[in-house]
């Protein structure tokens, strides 16, 4: 019995240690996934016609905002050293049209960036990255991805409310 208890304690300790290894990445990934899911819910709640709506001339439309998030996921990820999927042309994402196509592109971008978070080791978090608009470490890059998605979730909530669309999670 004592051996079984000792073995159980060892297994729990190993599992806890492993879970702590990527605590930062796992935490960011969980928060990012929550934001991504809500952005997708908003994207699905808008009608096809509302995708062209913009609050004023010169400001991104609903479609533009969604495609901007998809493009930024790839852009920031590539700056962190990850090659985008071979079938993705980051520069052409902004030309995608149609609600279903835009949602598909966003979902693929979301899945890709979530997967890449798992490839950043804790030892790499302090490594400097030149994002073009500023230099910071990889941890900062992960936080930028999370914050950027949250920023545009807020934008899309405002767009939704302006169009009589209730965010699905607040019904």
From TrEMBL:
Alphabetized UniProt keyword annotations? Metal-binding
Ligand binding (a divalent metal cation)? 68, 148, 152
Which InterPro entries is this protein grouped with?
DinB, DinB/YfiT-like
- The residues forming the signal peptide are none
Q: Name one GO molecular function term.
A: metal ion binding
Similarity field: Belongs to the DinB family.
Task: State the protein's name.
Answer: Damage-inducible protein DinB
């Amino acid at each position: 019995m004592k051996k079984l208890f000792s073995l159980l304690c060892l297994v729990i300790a190993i599992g806890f240690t492993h879970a702590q290894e990527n605590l930062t990445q796992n935490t960011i990934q969980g928060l990012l996934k929550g934001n991504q899911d809500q952005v997708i819910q908003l994207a699905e709640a808008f009608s096809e016609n509302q995708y062209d709506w913009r609050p004023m001339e010169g400001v991104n439309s609903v479609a533009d905002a969604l495609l901007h998030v998809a493009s930024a996921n790839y852009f920031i990820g590539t700056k962190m050293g990850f090659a985008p999927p071979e079938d993705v042309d980051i520069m052409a994402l902004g030309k995608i049209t149609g609600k279903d196509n835009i949602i598909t592109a966003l979902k693929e971008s979301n899945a890709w960036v979530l997967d890449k978070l798992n490839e950043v080791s804790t030892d790499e978090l302090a490594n400097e990255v030149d994002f073009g608009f500023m230099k910071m470490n990889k941890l900062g890059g992960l936080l930028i991805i999370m914050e950027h998605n949250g920023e545009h979730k807020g934008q899309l909530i405002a767009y939704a409310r302006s169009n009589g669309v209730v965010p699905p999670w607040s019904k």
